[in-house]
Design goal:
Elements lengths: L2 H32 L5 H10 L9 H24 L15 H12 L15 H31 L9 H27 L9 E4 L5 E4 L4 H10 L20 H25 L3 H28 L3 H6 L11 H14 L14 H12 L10 H21 L4 E2 L2 E2 L2 H27 L10 H16 L14 H30 L16 H25 L1 H5 L1
Helix pairs in contact: 1-8, 1-11, 3-4, 3-5, 3-16, 4-16, 5-6, 5-7, 5-13, 5-16, 6-7, 7-8, 8-9, 8-11, 9-11, 9-12, 9-17, 11-12, 12-15, 13-14, 13-17, 14-15, 14-16, 15-16
Membrane topology: Multi-pass membrane protein
Subcellular location: Cell membrane
Pfam family, one: KdpA
Length: about 550
């Protein structure tokens, strides 16, 4: 079997599995976020934090709850890392430097998981388990909760209430993320992933030297980093390390976990608004963009354009032979189409156009299918923009699932879309203006791509890197930390404000002039608007970076 054939079968099997679970798992997610009963464990959590589960919140209160929870999480995680040398299972590591602790705390709380450090030589086991892994759960739950709040804005009328953040956070964590993570961790352990509290084992190498092989609670962190589209690895090599991702079938499983929740959430949208076909339209947009991206990434990498790849017959630099070129390219596309950022190959070593695709995936806004929660609310905002554009064409007030899109709604949607490009372009310009753009190995277009990739990854809360830049400096840790913080919470505030505005509206009955938003025409329009907006915003930067290098 050729590498191309194996890669096609790998992708097809993923597609079949995602289609098979879309309805049953989406219905389960719907029951979790729409149910009214609370388990005893959940009731205990509510009493512990002093929350009345029956009390709902307006958008402002919901937003303040998100911000307060996240602020406390950042402070706790920062202190945890700064004091790790006094903690159990510290493995003798020193406290994390202040600017690095700030960056990492912000990174994991914002679901970015950008890592300027080598995990196995910087973080003790307790910090990994009780600090970083915990944030992998709750930051993912925050994203899903915000998406559900926006959907409630579409589904409800003449009310200012969007649910209760603390109830949503608790239910999503305990009923969705935790059970799947337990099963997934067991599967990864069966496949060969490590799960222990070892401080390291010394072995003799083939050359007669000694090497310390670090163990740790790897499988349990690996599964939630993929399921929650987090991406931060226990090891510096991330998912290319055999202790995190041992075999081809564990590689398949990890990609499946990355895509599982984002591709199922549109079903929740359809069920909650009472029009299942609207959910199918949203998932169709995701699928079209994802298939195009995965296909192009595979084509560019399998073509192996470049002197050295052509000479050896494949673009194998920076790739694990157990995953080959195609499975590595599929992982790279999946992890940047979502906000995961995990890597099983070195994106900096991809061909020029192959390396451009992960960058473009993030620039699309990570909506195909995007991060858990963030992908859905990002695509719904693009759907609103599409409806607004269509309304201008025919001279009608735009409507979407029974809600009018007026000046307030389109202003909020436009501001949402403008935040990330502003952060990416201003951040990249600041790096060059201050002389912090120097790279270890590359200059010219590829060096520009490395800087552009870093700010795109941080601002979109992805966390993957081209690398090639020394980002462990105070300037880089501070700048990228600010991009992660603003790129996460400014959009969330705008999404919740939009949800509140929609929830207060009275439903508008469909009429002869209402644009059908469940048909292939609308799917194509949303795809077009998404691609055109990205092209207009980022094409000049791409032309100076990966396109210039590729051509």
């Amino acid at each position: 079997m050729t590498m191309t054939t194996a890669g096609v079968l790998f992708i097809l099997s993923l597609g079949v599995a995602l289609v098979a679970v879309h309805k049953p798992f989406g219905d389960y997610l719907y029951r979790v976020v729409s149910g009214t009963r609370h388990s005893r464990v959940e009731q205990g959590v509510y009493r512990l934090v002093g929350v009345n589960p029956a009390a709902e919140q307006a958008w402002g209160v919901y937003a303040r709850s998100v911000l307060a929870f996240s602020a406390v999480s950042i402070l706790f995680l920062y202190g945890f890392m700064r004091m790790q040398n006094h903690l159990w299972l510290s493995l003798g590591f020193d406290p994390v430097v202040s600017h690095g602790a700030w960056n990492t705390a912000v990174s994991f709380v914002t679901n970015t998981n950008w890592q300027w450090y080598s995990g196995e030589s910087t973080m003790g086991h307790l910090v990994q388990m009780a600090g970083l892994a915990v944030q992998n759960f709750v930051s993912a739950a925050v994203g899903i909760a915000v998406a559900v709040a926006l959907v409630r804005g579409f589904a409800r009328s003449r009310t200012g209430e969007l649910g209760n953040f603390w109830v949503d956070l608790t239910r999503i964590t305990l009923r969705i993320l935790l059970p799947i993570s337990v099963l997934g961790a067991l599967a990864l352990m069966i496949g060969g992933a490590v799960q222990n509290l070892s401080a390291g084992t010394e072995v003799t190498t083939l050359t007669g030297g000694t090497q310390t092989i670090t163990g740790g609670p790897v499988a349990s962190q690996e599964v939630i980093k993929e399921l929650g589209t987090n991406g931060g690895g226990f090891y510096n090599a991330n998912s290319s390390h055999p202790f995190e991702n041992p075999t081809t079938w564990t590689n398949w499983l990890e990609i499946f976990l990355i895509l599982l929740i984002p591709f199922s959430l549109p079903r929740v949208f359809g069920r909650m608004v009472g029009q299942v076909r609207q959910g199918y339209a949203i998932v169709a947009v995701m699928a079209v963009l994802a298939i195009a991206s995965i296909t192009l990434t595979n084509v560019f990498e399998l073509a192996g354009n470049g002197t050295v790849p052509q000479a050896v017959g494949a673009a194998l630099e920076g790739k694990e032979v157990r995953f080959d070129v195609s499975n590595s390219a599929t992982f790279a596309a999946s992890t940047t189409l979502t906000s995961t950022g995990a890597v099983n190959s070195f994106h900096d070593s991809y061909t020029a156009l192959g390396g451009m695709m992960p960058l473009v995936n993030m620039m699309l806004g990570e909506v195909a299918p995007g991060g858990v929660g963030a992908g859905l609310y990002g695509l719904l905002i693009l759907a609103l923009i599409t409806v607004f554009v269509a309304g201008l064409m025919v001279g009608r007030t735009p409507e979407y699932v029974g809600k009018k899109i007026g000046s307030r709604e389109i202003k909020l949607a436009s501001l949402y879309f403008l935040i990330t490009p502003a952060l990416v372009l201003i951040g990249s310009a600041a790096a060059f203006a201050t002389g912090n753009n120097s790279t270890a190995l590359n200059v010219g277009p590829h060096g520009l791509s490395e800087v552009l990739y870093a700010f795109t990854s941080a601002s979109n809360n992805n966390g993957s890197a081209f690398a090639g830049i020394t980002v462990s400096t105070p300037w880089w840790n501070t700048a990228l930390g600010l991009c992660m913080l603003l790129g996460r919470f400014l959009p969330i505030i705008l999404v919740l404000a939009l949800a509140g505005s929609l929830a207060r509206q009275q439903p508008t009955p469909a009429s002869e002039g209402t644009l059908p938003t469940h048909r292939p025409l609308f799917v194509g329009m949303v795809v077009g608007v998404t691609v055109i907006l990205v092209a207009l915003t980022f094409l000049p930067a791409l032309a100076l970076g990966p396109l210039a290098e590729g051509l």
